[in-house]
Specification:
The chain is α+β, with helices and mostly antiparallel strands and about 160 residues long. It has 3 helices and 7 strands. Helix content is about 25%, strand content about 40%.
């Protein structure tokens, strides 16, 4: 497994940054290579991507989510990856969005891209475009403030 960690500071309150991040169907607006995301349930999404000329479809599930703090996910099928995005209050108007992702490069091209830092560069670009997207809007396009606890924790799973 390969781990990537990237951050960006956005000039919006934590609540606004978090709320926008829960709007998965808006991700193609700022994530390179993401063609479409379909929200199937509050905790499951279907992704359609084209990266490096390779088109893939896969499903992910939210494994942990706490409003204004974190959203964690893992793939259910398709390319193996998991991650967490955390939201850190810098001040009343600034939030640090931190992404940590683990994935398993499959093809020789993916392994080479990982070794050359291409994936990390792309993820930083996605975060930078998220910053532009939310700062230009000034407010979120929607919100889902459900709380999803990790297995073994007390909480409302839906």
């Amino acid at each position: 497994m390969t781990t990537i960690e990237k951050s960006v500071d956005v000039v919006v309150p934590v609540r606004t940054a978090y709320n926008q991040w829960t709007q998965f169907e808006s991700f193609p607006a700022f994530m390179e290579g993401v063609n479409r995301i379909i929200q199937q349930t509050p905790t499951r999404t279907h992704w359609e991507t084209t990266i490096g000329g390779v088109t893939r479809e896969f499903d992910t599930e939210i494994t942990e989510q706490h409003p204004d703090e974190r959203v964690a996910w893992r793939t259910v099928d398709g390319p193996s990856h998991a991650g967490v995005v955390t939201f850190h209050r810098i001040d009343d108007h600034t939030t640090r969005v931190h992404l940590q992702m683990e994935y398993e490069p499959e093809s020789l091209t993916e392994k080479a891209g990982t070794a050359l830092g291409v994936v990390g560069h792309r993820i930083q670009g996605d975060l930078n475009r998220f910053k532009e997207f939310i700062e230009e809007r000034g407010d979120e396009t929607g919100a889902w403030r459900g709380d999803v606890s990790r297995p073994g924790q007390v909480g409302d799973p839906a």
